[in-house]
Amino acid sequence: MTLLTDKIAVVTGGAQGLGLAMAREFVAAGAKVVIGDLDGDRAHEAAEGLDGEAVGLACDVVDAAQVQALIDAAVERWGRIDVFVNNAGITRDATMRKMSEDDFESVISVHLKGCWNGTRLAAAVMREQKSGAIVNISSLSGKVGMVGQTNYSAAKAGIVGMSKAAAKEMAHHGVRVNAIQPGLIRSAMTEAMPQKAWDQKMAEIPMQRAGEPDEVAKVALFLASDLSSYMTGTVLEVTGGRFM
């Protein structure tokens, strides 16, 4: 594939899961990739494991200086940045009665402030180039709300609003901003949930199966590439039809 030939992409939270699947998809499409992750060693290992040009660096997305360093690394190495994926995230699930302020604030910070840092700083470079694609990873939880996820649902809903506002600000600069809302995607985290919870979620999915990380990654590739050249401010659901 050549959808991203000679393009430079940055993926936060890219050492595992959806982030790694997206990094792998981008490299396969011809891109050079910078993987940022809170765990710098895992980011380096993930980059080493990709079949293409990639580097892995430590990055706490809550810290704007570290996000800027991630972008600077891409620009210094390859001269530009064409794609930025805000994927880094955490969960601290609990009902409101049991959720601590720290549980709430940490999830909001990583998802919402982290996404704002990445969007704002990547856009600053892209607007000078007059081109670029930003892909923000929201969640189905940001559409419908999930029990025990007032923090996560709020953050993921906020990412949708932020993406739309940023898309309006950046459209005339040639920079596109879009979001993806994955549903139940097979991962170590989701497969560890109690069978009862898994079965309940599966019953809500018309396609009757969980999604795979590469199925989200392919949608990210679409939004990162010129295939979506007339799309900005959109939210694409990758859910198997759950909660249509």
Automatic annotation (TrEMBL):
This is 3-oxoacyl-ACP reductase FabG. Belongs to the short-chain dehydrogenases/reductases (SDR) family. InterPro entries: KR_dom, NAD(P)-bd_dom_sf, Sc_DH/Rdtase_CS, SDR_fam. Coiled coil: none annotated. SMART domains: PKS_KR. The keyword Transport does not apply. Pfam families: adh_short_C2 (PF13561). It is an enzyme of class 1 (oxidoreductase). PROSITE patterns: ADH_SHORT. The gene is fabG. GO terms for molecular function: 3-oxoacyl-[acyl-carrier-protein] reductase (NADPH) activity. Residues 7-188 form the Ketoreductase domain. It comes from Janibacter terrae. Its EC number is 1.1.1.100. NCBIfam families: PRK05653.1-3, PRK07231.1, PRK12826.1-2. The keyword Oxidoreductase applies. The lineage of its organism: Bacteria, Bacillati, Actinomycetota, Actinomycetes, Micrococcales.
